[in-house]
Fold this protein.
Amino acid sequence: MVVASVALSSLVLDHSVTGRVVTILAAGLLVATAVTRLLKGRRTEADLLRSLMDESRSQSILLNDIENHVDTVFWTCTPDFQHLLHVSKAFERMWQMPMSALIGDDSAWQRRVHVDDVGPLHDAMRIAIRDGIYMQSSFRLVMPDATIKWVRVDAYPVTDAHGRVERYVSVCVDVTEERRRLTQLDYLAHVDSLTHLANRKSMMDALSKACGETAAFALLFIDVDRFKLLNDTVGHMAADRLLRIIGRRIRKVLPEASVVARPGGDEFTAILPGLWSEDELGRICGRLTKVVEYPIKSGQQGLELSLSVGIALFPDHGHTREALLTSADTAMYAAKRAGRNTWRIFGAAEKNDLTRNRLEQELGSAFRNGQFSLHYQPQICLRTRKVIGVEALLRWNHPVRGFVSPAEFVPLLEHAGLILPVGDWVVAQATEALSELHRLGYPLSMSINVSAVQFRDTSIQDAIATNLRFHGLRGESLVVEITESILMDRSEAVQHALNAIRDMQVGIALDDFGTGFSSLSYLAKFRPEALKLDKSFVDDIEDDAVALTIVQGVIDLAHRLGVHVLAEGVEREGQLQLLEEAGCDSIQGYLVGRPVPFADLIVQLALEPATSASAGEHHSRA
């Protein structure tokens, strides 16, 4: 009686049985309450006996009703699960097997258990027998009409006064509907609802599993070219239909063992197990790019699409799912830059792209964390061999890579939109250093590089004016180096900035002269204070007569226009002599001084106190 009550309470708590059962329980509760009242009323023993007999009949009716009307199967068996002691009538409804089948064959119920579930069920039984513990297991029943029914069994040990298991009381519940809902939820959690391919979660799980094994595989990152424009043109519903068609076509042309997914938007991925040669991947990608060559109808028009594919190989291009996805994505963008409708395998060029992307992502924190600094390179007058100025050069001391080349990170500053705040910081630092040089008795000029982006923003002149005023510096002690592209930019903003800087008496030097597409007419009209010969010209003047002739001609032309000439990248004594003979005014390069931190510059100047000249000598026109 106690066991039945425990099983029944478990049933009600776990499975919310029908209202009929609740009514029966309520009746049982009323009987128990009546007994309690009889005891409290101190009736005669005959009354008490009669009441107990009524209670027994009521509970017998309760158990009989449970047997006949509740679809949960109750049974008791020996501690070894070999012999059934009692089975409720619901067995016939759940198992679709007559009770008579159990007479003489206590294991007959197992004939309905799915063959794949017999082993796990027996394992659970063996553990329960060995440890004398509660057991729960789920298994499938195969009905006579081949339909499947999921059943969950909970088996509770009943022990004697010494703690030995006397029998097991089991409760079997039909959980088919619950399993169906779980299967549906699992499907929704792992499948893209639009294309019915694997979704992002499923793809990431598959990638993690593949990376955890040693077998090689290829990861393809597939992107529909110009899909946003298409989406805006045909509308979201038509675009979704196109994605479904593309997804089906991609799945059709890839190897059967591939895991194809749509992580989101117009992107698809595919994991191709195995070791693939470049030729094999080329053929596969060729089939992929052709799947959209056949026009896809949208309304009355046929839409022509294309795909760009990036490929990463495990383990060559990454050991983790994140690294592989990044490599494949980088290769895909390389395919787009190559003209779209093609494919690329992650290689040296893509690795450089990836490095640039990572550096660009780190620029903001690098600036905030003080990883940027200025180094200063001396500029020497060839006539007097004295230091007449220094150029402030931006440096990035990366915590892992060390010093990063300015040619590598300065364009990234512009692309990331950080050139303006960094540029303002450079002006502030350089003018502070210039003020300190003058305070220490070194009346040198300070050259700073300014990008075209800063000129177009027009805030550069405000930064220069503010810092000159703050440090009490004269404008002619500062030189702004610009590229030929700025000189040729006739926009109002750039011209206004150039004129404003000149009005402050700040010198302007034309940097990297000869490497761009400058016009001599612009040089004649603008007439900068200084012209800097690019290192590429200086490198060859010892061995190339044409290069020397060009340098001589540029120096002569500049002097006729009243422009000071400074040669960059001077590294050998022979170059210095030829430049001096050509009439070059000043030089800058490793031969006469490398870029150094400000403290080291001061030490160098202090060791040769007589080598510095006034700032005005830098700007004097020949």
In short: DSSP finds 24 helices and 21 strands in the chain. The longest strand covers residues 148-159. Confidence is low (pLDDT under 50) at residues 1-31. The first helix runs from residue 2 to 15.
